[in-house]
Amino acid sequence: MASLFNIAYSVRLSSNSNTFRKQKHYFSLNRQRLVVKATETDKNEVRAKAPDKAPAESGSSINQILGIKGAKQETNKWKIRVQLAKPVTWPPLVWGVVCGAAASGNFHWTGEDVAKSVVCMIMSGPCLTGYTQTINDWYDREIDAINEPYRPIPSGAISKDEVLTQIWVLLLAGVGLAGLLDVWAGHNYPVIFYLAIGGSLVSYIYSAPPLKLKQNGWIGNYALGVTLFGTLTADIVVLTLLYSIAGLGIGIVNDFKSVEGDRELGLQSIPVAFGSETAKWICVGAIDITQIAVAGYLLGAGKPYHALALLGLIAPQIFFQLKYFLRDPVKYDVKYQASAQPFLVLGLLVTALATSH
Prior knowledge:
This protein is mostly helical and 357 residues long. The protein contains 16 helices and 2 strands. Keywords: Chlorophyll biosynthesis, Membrane, Transmembrane, Transmembrane helix.
């Protein structure tokens, strides 16, 4: 069960050509040390409980490269490495760069600003989100051996040393790019670098023992959903809290497919704690009610057009919830997220534009 962790993101693209101020959107940064021996399970022990291959007839090459369930068994190590980094989870983080730039009101279509944004997208998506997904799969290997035994780690398609190497390479690349952006922006204080380090630590405790925040459905999923853009004004604090609750709902979507393994290993995800029927309503309620509350807040703040646009984007999300998610959250989770998530992230952009100055 690979989770996506959003900490905080905001971009400040200054009108001054030498300044690129950014507060960042942090995401999934799970941090692992090589001294994890006390919590590691021997690879052979995991493999003994899991078949070596997924059924050939149900495996998809597209699912494999995107890193989602139903993937084809693959032997090519580079394809396996990409699968572990879960490219399907990168777009929301890349989109966060766009939202942050919009919220700042300081982005200009110059070559330098575009280049800085591209570097930030690479840092946010392939590097730090890829790092997060890989380390999360490492700590979820026993759960995956039950829920998705064909995944690369429980099936033995990639070795422990290769996984740990990937974790460190992606982490160091992401943190290195964060430092580069600080230098490029001429920061006196390396805020981007320290946010990257902090995000890495928080996502490490999300996935790893002894804290392993994901053991508790409320704490873990709220950690996944924490989001921030802009400077710390009253408006930003309120909108951050609301969208963080919506993020909690998004995190719950991914828990349904892991119920069997979570229950067996004692993780109190929302579906395990409340049952699937109740959990799916908690999920859609967290997503819809908080977005409606954001629209109401924008209306009260004198942004009627932004509020109406946001309401218009909530409607198709509710439609797809009724069509897919509420019918069968396990069978249709991928279809639901592919259909509904674009409207949610567009809503984030609308809200970011409403807060721009």
